[in-house]
Amino acid sequence: MGAAQESPQQAFARFVRRAIDDARDERGWTVSDLAAHTGVGRSTVFRWLAGDWQDYPELAKVRGFCAALDVPVAAAFRALGVPDGAPVAGRQRGPDTADADIRAIQRRLADPRVSADEKKTIRDLLRYLARPADRRAAG
């Protein structure tokens, strides 16, 4: 059997570490500088680095972090296990597409081959997305 699959916390921590190292090497930024330029607080950056989060990071903060560092946001979303965190221009998401997405999620959650960690990640993301937008913005 192969090595254990990396959790979203571990993958995102690795992504953040690489972005911070690049910011330090290319711009001479400290974590405090990074926080000031990205709008993501130092404590949040350190939580991300430690993989110390239960609910997914606020996607607006992830976008701001990536934008300030000129890092593709898609790379952050991949690390988080969120394949499509940003809407794609021109793509319509109607009820048929949503129903298909819900069925696909249900199949993943019922599939015995999907790890418990991945199922927990899916459920955590669904809980996050189900929260009212004003609560997500505060969080």
TrEMBL record:
PROSITE patterns: HTH_CROC1
InterPro entries assigned to the protein according to its UniProt record, in alphabetical order: Cro/C1-type_HTH, Lambda_DNA-bd_dom_sf
Transmembrane regions listed in the UniProt entry: none
All copies of domain HTH cro/C1-type, residue ranges: 20-76
One Pfam family named in its UniProt record: HTH_3
Lineage, top ranks: Bacteria, Bacillati, Actinomycetota, Actinomycetes, Micromonosporales
Protein name: Helix-turn-helix domain-containing protein
